[in-house]
């Protein structure tokens, strides 16, 4: 589920530690179980597994990073930062760990005063630049840094020229990402024709690379929402849903989120969220407890308190630390 600056960044797979680092940490079985719980949105189970691993070895960088990611998904920014900072201290050579720390800083900065956010901006940029330097082929890290360069003012290290240089770097191994980054550059410059062209180029690149352009269609739909081009938004999102029909993956949840933000087609939005939650492609990109909560919010707006509370309860069962689901419980009076 993409929202605002840093949750808008496309989340990617974990980059593994070296074999030596792995052996010093969690067992393969424990690591796989934690990742499975993370992808299924089973936050309480994932944190329980990771806490056990950290009790056995408090310096397990991989467990700390996975803990950071789970807390990040639960929007527990301060705790996520603490875990990510510790993982970077232990394994400073990991591009992925620096990237996740930058993301956690970014979400925190999005929710504090301007003065505090200003102070944090340098740390955000430093972590993303470290991630991109440590692994120049970490597409997630380059995309994150590029998004920072697009949105940050020059006095905080931003700049469209810097972002374009990263897009050129992405051209060589991740064309989908390069097209999206260029679309963001054009959109920032209010060149909406250029932005649309790049979003459509991303669809072509995704179709060529993997045969599934579901997320690229959803990104185009989100662009149309920002431009209030409602009919084109719906058409793009429906194309994305067709592309996602094979696996009912996270693109469906993203499309539903766009419809909800646009206050359009609530029945279609709820159907897509249900399809995602009932499918076999749950992922960290759209945590199940977040989708349950959004679905509950949709039902609540429609006046269906019983179905809303059912979804909130499902979210709380997965992630007792997810504040929006707990607050929804209070608001429904149960």
Automatic annotation (TrEMBL):
Keywords of this entry: Signal
SUPFAM superfamilies membership: TPR-like (SSF48452)
Pfam families per record: TPR_16
Signal peptide interval: 1-19
Protein name, as recorded: Tetratricopeptide (TPR) repeat protein
Originating species: Silvibacterium bohemicum
